[in-house]
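Batch job 17 of 40 flagged for manual review because the log was empty.
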Amino acid sequence: MKLNNVIHGHRSIREYEDREVSQELLDQILDAGIRASSSGNMQSYSIIATRDPELKKKLYSAHMDQSMVVDAPVLLTFCADFNRMRKWLKLNGAPVHFDNFMSFMIGAIDATLVSQNCALAAEDAGLGICYMGSTLANCDQIGKLLNLPPNVVPVVGYSLGYPAENPAPRDRLPKHGLVHYDTYQDYTDEEIQSIYEERNEKGWKRYMDNPRLKEMTERLGLKNLAEIYTIAKYTEESHHEYSQTVLNYLESQNFMRNE
């Protein structure tokens, strides 16, 4: 496939064929990931490819009971990783640091860049993926299950396999609402309404067309998509809880030294 077709054809795939991904193909995907840009060429990330069915069953709960965790043949978890770098520094008599929040951010960005390279390579080969925000939200549980040492934190993860569904591509906000030239141009109320007009319509329709989502929306008395996002999906309470989980885990994984 042409790269442009791969990019514009992206869909989140949650249902997979009962078909293994060959090691040869997985290696091609991982090789594409490793070619991603990296801060200082430190490659401060690690990739964990999970195939073991029993381990995936354990990860199922940590990933908020999402079915693709156990249904997909492979799970890929991309971690910010300064454990390897710190060991190398010590062996060469160099100062050993990279144990602060800035270092975590560098590793997190590296890991995210790698994940998208792998995603594009996978979709180009006819596979499907579904990113899972639970990777970071429950990083402490996932880190324990994946046996992560200090200075390693799971940041991005997704299921990987041959699609058993063909969902329509989801809408995106219009380019004029996302791209700024030279400096940030803040939005008027009228511009905000225009930018989100199609999202309001299509997002609401998607909820109303799904019996389970429609029942939830009606039960909670939600009147628009904005309320769905903030009352049903991404509540203030849940984001505070997940924020604290991440901060606590960063401290336990030696990424919060301030002195």
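Reviewer: the log was empty due to a logging misconfiguration, but the result itself is present. Residues 101-124 form the longest helix (24 residues). Unflagging and moving on to job 18.
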